[in-house]
Design brief:
Distance between the termini: 18 Å
Shape: globular
Number of domains: 1
Structural class: alpha+beta
Order of helices and strands: EEHEHEH
Strand order of the largest sheet: 1-4
Strand content: 5-15%
Number of helices: 3
Number of strands: 4
Radius of gyration: 14 Å
Length: 86
C-alpha cells in the first residue's frame, strides 16, 4: 500500500469535486501534507484493507516539509496499523 495525504489549500471539497471531471493529474487546490492530517480517511482505508486480507508493506510518501513531518506520519501509521491489526 502507498500512503500519502493531501489537503485543500483553498476552497471546499465541493469545489474540488467540480474540478475532477476529466482533469489529468492533481487539482491545483491540493497539496501534499502530513499523513493523517489531510482528506484521506485512514480508518476506512485500513478497515477495507483488513477486510480483504491485506498483510503487506506500507510505503510512505511524505516528508515534503522535513523529517519531523515524516516522523509524525510514521507514528500515525504505526498507531493505525496497531489499532486495525493488533
Amino acid at each position: 500500500m502507498h500512503a500519502s495525504d493531501r489537503y485543500l489549500i483553498e476552497g471546499t471539497v465541493e469545489d474540488l469535486r467540480k474540478e475532477e471531471g476529466g482533469a489529468a493529474g492533481y487539482a491545483k487546490r491540493l497539496r501534499h501534507g502530513e499523513i493523517g492530517k489531510g482528506l484521506n480517511v485512514y480508518d476506512a482505508i485500513f478497515t477495507e484493507l483488513k477486510r480483504v486480507g491485506f498483510v503487506g508493506w506500507i510505503s510512505i510518501e511524505d516528508g515534503v516539509d522535513g523529517i519531523d513531518q515524516l516522523r509524525r506520519s510514521v507514528d500515525f501509521l504505526k498507531r493505525k496499523t496497531a489499532q486495525h491489526w493488533g
